[in-house]
């Protein structure tokens, strides 16, 4: 028997304000038609003034705890993936911990930009499998609207704010791929691609938060090449084939990247969870948001094989394979 990290609850929160593509039309040389056809995005949510990443994370966390039937103090720790924390420090995760009224355990942030949730989940999975902890809340929460250059049509139409959360709990498994829970993860970074996607400010450089800069078409090419590769690698590690995948839950950056990845994996689009139209790219929040939305609709059945994959600034990319 071995320990497995099983998802026992999901939750999400989206800020109230919804912004349609048409909102950008009188501000920038862009159109609903361009955004829709090049990205699949139709609308996104933006946080209200004063609404922070940890505020979004707390609401998503409460929903996930409710779903799992747990209280905050049932948790051993919180791992929160974000690139847009409330403050330089302390970690946004500690603010979520306080906001939940959780009085025990640990809380820390993981920063791997859009791939952050996969990295955070891999981290929590390792802690659970090693026996260090039994229950971890893993959150992806972002307020990318705070680091947009609103004069740059090539980036500001793409991103949105939101948060998603999952509870990972230790359960006994047989040690083969019929077990429930996370079966394999595959993580990568390559820092030589920094200039393709970065924020032009920071604590030890400009002393400001900075704004997002991206060479979108180059990131696009890396995404199409690397995402299917990492998904295949994680499936290999789990001893599974793409034919055995029930659901692809991809990072929601661009519908064309998602379709190309699904095609490379030989998966029909009916097996792909899509939220990009309504959420835009919410960076580390996009996968847990998609998981929570699909779970809320009852789309995953016990025993289903799920693959998640993401790529973002770094470049950093990776995937996780799990059985629901
Ligand atoms: O989550 C982190 C990872 N990030 C991503 O995965 C994003 C990856 N990249 C993409 O999704 C796509 O590259 C974009 C959606 C960002 C851009 O789509 P593209 O098909 O790669 O377009 P492009 O950058 O090659 O630009 C094509 C044209 C350009 O005009 P010219 O030079 O051909 O005259 C752009 O200036 O589209 C223009 N363009 C726009 N036009 C209207 C760029 N942004 C816009 C816009 N509205 N918002």
TrEMBL record:
Catalyzes the condensation reaction of fatty acid synthesis by the addition to an acyl acceptor of two carbons from malonyl-ACP. Catalyzes the first condensation reaction which initiates fatty acid synthesis and may therefore play a role in governing the total rate of fatty acid production. Possesses both acetoacetyl-ACP synthase and acetyl transacylase activities. Its substrate specificity determines the biosynthesis of branched-chain and/or straight-chain of fatty acids. Residues 235-324 form the Beta-ketoacyl-[acyl-carrier-protein] synthase III C-terminal domain. It comes from Paracoccus alkanivorans. Residues 252-256 are annotated as: ACP-binding. PANTHER family: 3-OXOACYL-[ACYL-CARRIER-PROTEIN] SYNTHASE 3 (PTHR34069), BETA-KETOACYL-[ACYL-CARRIER-PROTEIN] SYNTHASE III (PTHR34069:SF2). The gene is fabH. This is Beta-ketoacyl-[acyl-carrier-protein] synthase III. InterPro entries: ACP_syn_III_C (IPR013747), ACP_syn_III_N (IPR013751), FabH (IPR004655), Thiolase-like (IPR016039). Pathway: Lipid metabolism; fatty acid biosynthesis. Residues 108-191 form the Beta-ketoacyl-[acyl-carrier-protein] synthase III N-terminal domain. GO terms for molecular function: 3-oxoacyl-[acyl-carrier-protein] synthase activity; beta-ketoacyl-acyl-carrier-protein synthase III activity.
């Amino acid at each position: 028997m071995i320990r497995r990290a099983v998802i026992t609850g999901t939750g999400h929160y989206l800020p109230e304000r919804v912004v349609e593509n048409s909102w950008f039309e009188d501000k920038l040389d862009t159109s609903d038609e361009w955004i829709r056809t090049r990205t699949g995005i139709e609308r996104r949510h933006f946080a209200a003034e004063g609404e922070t990443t940890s505020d979004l994370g707390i609401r998503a966390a409460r929903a996930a705890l409710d779903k799992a039937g747990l209280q905050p103090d049932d948790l051993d720790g919180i791992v929160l993936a974000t690139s847009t924390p409330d403050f330089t420090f302390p970690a946004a995760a500690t603010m979520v911990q306080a906001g939940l009224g959780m009085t025990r355990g640990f809380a820390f942030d993981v920063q791997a930009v859009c791939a952050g949730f996969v990295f955070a989940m891999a981290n929590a999975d390792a802690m659970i499998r090693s026996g260090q902890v039994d229950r971890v809340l893993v959150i992806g929460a972002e307020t990318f609207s705070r680091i947009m250059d609103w004069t740059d049509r090539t980036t500001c139409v793409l991103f949105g704010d939101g948060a998603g959360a999952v509870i990972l709990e230790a359960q006994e498994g047989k040690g083969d791929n019929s077990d429930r829970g996370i079966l394999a993860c595959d993580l990568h970074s390559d820092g030589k691609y920094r200039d393709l996607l970065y924020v032009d400010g920071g604590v030890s450089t400009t002393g400001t938060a900075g704004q997002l800069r991206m060479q979108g078409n180059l990131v696009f090419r890396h995404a199409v090449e690397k995402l299917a590769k990492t998904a295949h690698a994680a499936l290999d590690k789990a001893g599974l084939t793409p034919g055995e995948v029930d659901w692809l839950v991809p990072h929601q950056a661009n519908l064309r990247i998602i379709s190309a990845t699904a095609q490379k994996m030989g998966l029909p689009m009916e097996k792909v969870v899509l939220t990009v139209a309504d959420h835009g790219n919410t960076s580390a929040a996009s996968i847990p948001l998609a998981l929570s939305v699909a779970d809320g609709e009852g789309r995953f059945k016990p025993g289903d094989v799920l693959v998640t994959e993401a790529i973002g600034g770094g470049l950093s990319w990776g995937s996780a394979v799990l059985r629901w």
